[in-house]
Amino acid sequence: MIKAILIFNNHGKPRLIRFYQYFSEDMQQQIIRETFHLVSKRDDNVCNFLEGSDYKLIYRHYATLYFVFCVDSSESELGILDLIQVFVETLDKCFENVCELDLIFHMDKVHYILQEVVMGGMVLETNMNEIVAQVEVQNRMEKSEGGLSAAPARAVSAVKNMNLPEIPRNINIGDINIKVPSLSPF
Amino acid sequence: MPAVSKGDGMRGLAVFISDIRNCKSKEAEVKRINKELANIRSKFKGDKALDGYSKKKYVCKLLFIFLLGHDIDFGHMEAVNLLSSNKYTEKQIGYLFISVLVNSNSDLIRLINNAIKNDLASRNPTFMNLALHCIANVGSREMAEAFASEIPRILVAGDTMDSVKQSAALCLLRLNRTSPDLVPMGEWTARVVHLLNDQHLGVVTAATSLITTLAQKSPDDFKTSVSLAVARLSRIVTSASIDLQDYTYYFVAAPWLSVKLLRLLQCYPPPEDTSLRSRLTECLETILNKAQEPPKSKKVQHSNAKNAVLFEAITLIIHHDSEPNLLVRACNQLGQFLQHRETNLRYLALESMCTLASSEFSHEAVKTHIETVINALKTERDVSVRQRAVDLLYAMCDRSNSKQIVAEMLSYLETADYSIREEIVLKVAILAEKYAVDYTWYVDTILNLIRIAGDYVSEEVWYRVIQIVINRDDVQGYAAKTVFEALQAPACHENLVKVGGYILGEFGNLIAGDPRSSPLVQFNLLHSKFHLCSVPTRALLLSAYIKFINLFPEVKGTIQDVLRSDSQLRNADVELQQRAVEYLRLSCIASTDILATVLEEMPPFPERESSILAKLKKKKGSSKLPDMDDSRKNVNGSSEHAEDAEVASKPPQFLLEELISTDRPHPSSSATMLPTRTMVPSHTFTDNLSVNSAPSSGASLLVDVFSDFSSAAPTEGSDEHFPRFVCKNNGVIYENQLLQIGLKSEYRQNLGRMYVFYGNKTSTKFLSFSTSVSTLQLNVQEKPVDPLIEAGAQVQQILNIECVSDFSDVPVLNIQFRYGGTLQNITVKLPVMLNKFFQPTEMTSQDFFQRWKQLGAPQQEVQKIFKAKNQMDTDVTKAKLLGFGVALLDGVDPNPTNFVGAGIIHTKTTQVGCLLRLEPNTQAQMYRLTLRTSKESVSQRLCELLPPTNAVPPATAAPLAELFTATLIWSWDAISLHRHMTSSKRGAIPALKHSGGRTVVGA
């Protein structure tokens, strides 16, 4: 079973956290910190598994983001690595060249996509076409309900870019893009 | 077109996020968040009813704030309200908030349940999925109560959409984990299993996960899933990749489903149905074959997916442990991966090989990779991988390579990561003990451990070395010499001082003859370390000093002066002060005799499970120990319960540990040297005698400690212990919660005496305790036994046994007593077998062959072939045969690996001579046993007793016989004849070959 899924950036800022086993809020934050501490000091060419006492961390590092799955002994390590890849490729399809900013501003959407892949700690679907199809269904429903809320949509993207003058300075945009299909993950 | 329309968001949310990102400092961020929280709170509390959109926006902001690590203590109600919205997006965010932020014991669950109920009934698949997700993610008991009966119905209903079926299967799985009692499967079982045939592979994947979990709990109910799973797997494995287009992942057909199906099959033994079994074997072979094909893509995803299936197939092969061919292929495949450039594969290969090493079919094959593994230990850059290499070396270690492996681990220890040092120390200590043929090597190894990694040498390790030195008198002198030399180093670890103090205190006299290590030199050396040590070590040294006074009267004055000094007599530490005062006084007033009695050498320690092994198991949990293959059984991980997660996640191993440790003398008490004998190990049933009296069987003694370990835990039923008594006379024959029964027995000719010890393990007394022995063929005379056994006490009973004629029945001991008002009845088979009345007989090879020939009638000879249960170890086998009762004759059999023995069975009426021959075939891991006696019934009976197991594999005997006849061209009678003739110089005989390839050349 998957106990938790954590996504954080190179500085340890959480971008998505999802626990399938109950932990108090403090514990959750502590787990994130410790996981980041463990994962971030590892080179990129070492193995993608880290073993704890009764769990395993299986992770991948894409550009600015770490995707970490915490699993128990019932999961196949390579299988989970593939699952991370499926999840990231799906994000990439849904967001078109997904980048860290997409995860920040569309946290809810990322959650919905993840829900199509993992449910209650178990793998729900691994077929990318199926996952994308489900997301598209959701999207159509959202659009059909749009009405009033659809109007400010364009304004949002304007605001988003307008309010973020520091982005190009701090981060190399080319680096942010997770062009998954062409990226060797190691 | 992107599936997510990026623009369709909430403006307020985007602004808020941007604000946060613009904050220059942590303080500014907190301030901005608090402002927003206040704003949201006032909006929620305000009079004006919020519309759905605003609620959605605020709830989303709360989620973001939560992600940043701030506690959210309001908004739950608003989220619950969103659940009943008609709008999908509002419902969706409501469910998201609840599954992220609501824990299972929230008081809102009833409200949430209401919303879920409506959505499940809505027949709108999207809404149903949202509801099912919520149940699976929260998984509380209240939810299980409300929906446990509903979800199976949704799962198997004919008109349910595929996506809903998938969710329902996983939802049910989750509820089964959190509240198994609420999810009765009975009526649904067959239909759930049938889901393995579903058209939609997503449904099959989810169903496989569900069935795997259920099958672990009640394997019998889901037996039918095996054939379906094999069929499904076979279709996937043999399909061209285009058949399963959607589920083909980088040219690999349905890797996830394959992995899941292979996991499911690991819940069961190999299928008994032969066609099914061959179909499965075919699948596994195909998977192994595919690994050798050139990759269809250079992408790492392709190789990952392919290898995920491959590793799972190998795990299944190891789990079945029945097809030597597959096991060896698996081992070769893993061997290739050991040198793969991908770190992940090297890691996984090391991990899998670790379990492979414990299979008797592949242990040898694994051993061939030793150099690669040692190299990995030296060169891998990744500590995770090095750790695996250590585990594998530990698993593949046996007598043949133990020295090399221990040496490599010791040298790695010097540079090892701090995080794994303690574990390596434990492993080295265990291996050194387990495979010590030569105990000087063992002592050297442990002292090296202390030198290299003294800080990581736990108490258990140095206690153990002392226990072993005390129990084995052949190593005591060497140990004393070695610690004396080691102590001369200018800086030595405190643990070494402890070991040194203890050993010199006990055995310093053994080296005192050498002027370089005269008593005074020894004392001065120890005392030079005294001031650098901690209080417990000083206390130990003081005890060593008083022992010195007994051993070496010539240093008495010097030591008394030291004890008398203010720093001892007035030491601030009460323990040290007391010891100094008492020891000084003791040395002054006691006569030499009293001193010698009080300070006598320590008695041997009882042989129990090595405390180090227990420690390692405790440290590592269960999964890493190769001889405990829990990891295989636990296919689906530890079950997880919302209420008592801690108890449930505790591996069963731990409970066992605790049981063991309670009946083990506390190590600290066994290591301090109180000058009185109050701590002489109280009654032990284990064989102490053999420690001192039988050095020839001594080598196997410590091995026995390990093999006995599994029975150290209290187990019901006597039959498990029984077989071990074929080759030994003392030990625990029976143990349950209340009572432990130990035996000591001795036999002379046709008479035997058995001491039976009844130990009351409870804190209540046993009343009306009585026993009776029923036997058909033996004369047994029972001495009366005390009818009352006090709590924690032990009583002894003597049985006198006479063997009238050869017999096959086993006497049965019936025990009756009252415990807390209820009458307890226990029956135990007493291990009195025919071989107990053996008298070992030495004879020359000439005599032997003469008799062998005399006993050539077909009914006098019995033969059997059986499989080696454990490692085929010469010393162990020797010890067993000696325990069986025959004398071992060296140099009789031309093949030195064979065992030959002789003895006479004494009964009142007759004496029956018996010759025995045991031929090991290490390649096939088999033994052939041949027995010739003058009496047919005796031959039969003795043959039944060997090997001492409960279950002898009967069916396989016939084909196995060919194994031997094929390799053994020579006949024994020919050899004996040949010997006979050469000895009487009757001419030459042509060369004869035998299995070992050695040639016996005629003179």
UniProtKB/TrEMBL annotation, chain A:
Residues 1-141 form the AP complex mu/sigma subunit domain. Part of the AP-3 complex, an adaptor-related complex which is not clathrin-associated. The complex is associated with the Golgi region as well as more peripheral structures. It facilitates the budding of vesicles from the Golgi membrane and may be directly involved in trafficking to lysosomes. In concert with the BLOC-1 complex, AP-3 is required to target cargos into vesicles assembled at cell bodies for delivery into neurites and nerve terminals. Its main location: membrane. Keywords: Cytoplasmic vesicle, Golgi apparatus, Membrane, Protein transport, Transport. It holds the Pfam family Clat_adaptor_s. It is a peripheral membrane protein. This is AP complex mu/sigma subunit domain-containing protein. GO terms for biological process: Golgi to vacuole transport; intracellular protein transport. GO terms for cellular component: AP-3 adaptor complex; cytoplasmic vesicle membrane; Golgi apparatus. It comes from Gambusia affinis (Western mosquitofish). It is found in: Cytoplasmic vesicle membrane; Golgi apparatus. Belongs to the adaptor complexes small subunit family. Gene3D superfamilies: 3.30.450.60.
UniProtKB/TrEMBL annotation, chain B:
GO terms for molecular function: clathrin adaptor activity. Residues 723-831 form the Clathrin adaptor alpha/beta/gamma-adaptin appendage Ig-like subdomain domain. A 1,2-diacyl-sn-glycero-3-phospho-(1D-myo-inositol-3,4,5-trisphosphate) binds at R11, G12, K43, Y53, K57, Y58, V59, C60, K61. Gene3D superfamilies: 2.60.40.1230, Leucine-rich Repeat Variant, TATA-Binding Protein. Residues 618-648 are annotated as: Disordered. Signal peptide: none annotated. It is a peripheral membrane protein. InterPro entries: Adaptor_Complx_Large_Subunit, AP2_complex_asu, ARM-like, ARM-type_fold, Clathrin/coatomer_adapt-like_N, Clathrin_a-adaptin_app_sub_C, Clathrin_a/b/g-adaptin_app_Ig, Clathrin_app_Ig-like_sf. It comes from the Eukaryota. One of its GO terms (biological process) is intracellular protein transport. Transmembrane segments: none annotated. It is found in: Cell membrane; Membrane, Coated pit. GO terms for cellular component: AP-2 adaptor complex. Pfam families: Adaptin_N, Alpha_adaptin_C, Alpha_adaptinC2. Adaptor protein complex 2 (AP-2) is a heterotetramer composed of two large adaptins (alpha-type subunit AP2A1 or AP2A2 and beta-type subunit AP2B1), a medium adaptin (mu-type subunit AP2M1) and a small adaptin (sigma-type subunit AP2S1). Belongs to the adaptor complexes large subunit family. PANTHER family: ADAPTIN, ALPHA/GAMMA/EPSILON. Component of the adaptor protein complex 2 (AP-2). Adaptor protein complexes function in protein transport via transport vesicles in different membrane traffic pathways. Adaptor protein complexes are vesicle coat components and appear to be involved in cargo selection and vesicle formation. AP-2 is involved in clathrin-dependent endocytosis in which cargo proteins are incorporated into vesicles surrounded by clathrin (clathrin-coated vesicles, CCVs) which are destined for fusion with the early endosome. This is AP-2 complex subunit alpha. It comes from Gambusia affinis. The lineage of its organism: Eukaryota, Metazoa, Chordata, Craniata, Vertebrata.
